[in-house]
Amino acid sequence: MSTLPFYNAVADDFDSVNQLIIRQLHSRVPLVEKIGNYIINAGGKRLRPLVVLLSARACGLSDERQHSLAAIIEFLHTATLLHDDVVDISDQRRGRSTANAKWGNAPSVLVGDFLYSRAFEMMVEMGDMRIMQVLANATNVIAEGEVLQLTKVRDAGTDEATYMEVIRSKTAMLFEASTHSAGILAGANEEQIDALRQYGNALGIAFQLIDDVLDYTGDAEAMGKNVGDDLAEGKPTLPLIYTMREGTAEQAQKVRQAIQKGGIEDITAIQQAVRECGALDYTSQLARTHIDEAVKLLQVLPPSVYRDSLEQLAKFAIERRF
């Protein structure tokens, strides 16, 4: 697992989650297991199962149900990645070939469907209707967010409110569902459950905002994707939206054209524009505001190493370089 300190508190839990994931990936169709194992083992930070484990432990849960919930969340996330890569026609993720690049679009979509359905089988086994309601709603909202983002590709008229709706749906929703369902599972009181729900939402928004900054400033090798990937796909992210709104006429026009045509031919000029007009600082500061709120929300939880780890994770979200 990662060497980042906030993983240490639940290192043993992570081992149990990984073993459970391997068991639940079993299928009588070998290609399902092969693709499932390939993408599950692709690396990544496993942040969503991490916040499940930390949130559940912070509320006093110590049994194996949290491992099932963490595995469910990881399956839901992995399914969205498989589908995302097909929609975005991506051939690289986390520094290696995507499943659709290796096996084709059809198997990737169908294995994504398998992971969704396996996740819901596991939810049924848990037998908690409130958790099922949270996670069913989350998968619905995520799908809506994907479609909304798709309709805004190469749309230089996208405003900040629409962008925020996309990232709340696409990215923050699964973080929110992770912490929300963990609080429910642990039997926390309603104030704590709602605080965890809001913490997950704020954390997810901040992570995406910093991802959008790193798309222009990050190290491609460390990130496992190319700098400018979102621009290449014609996605109007907040640094670009801010530049069109607040930059000079020349900067705004350059960004508008880049979004409309896609590609990264003008990436150097765009990097300069988003930096010089303050778009990266604006986006980073908005992420910081969400993280400050997330940390305050944690104060309703009893002091513990798990609460401390949730706070460390929040601070990592805005300090990271990958």
Automatic annotation (TrEMBL):
Keyword terms of this UniProt record: Magnesium, Metal-binding, Transferase
Signal peptide as annotated in the record: none
One of the Pfam families matching this protein, by short name: polyprenyl_synt
Domain of life of the native organism: Bacteria
Keyword Metal-binding belongs to the record: yes
Required co-factors: Mg(2+)
InterPro entries found in the cross-reference section: Isoprenoid_synthase_dom_sf, Polyprenyl_synt, Polyprenyl_synt_CS
Database matches in PANTHER family: ALL TRANS-POLYPRENYL-DIPHOSPHATE SYNTHASE PDSS1, GERANYLGERANYL PYROPHOSPHATE SYNTHASE
Entry similarity comment: Belongs to the FPP/GGPP synthase family.
Protein name (record): Octaprenyl diphosphate synthase
The organism of origin for this protein: Halopseudomonas salina
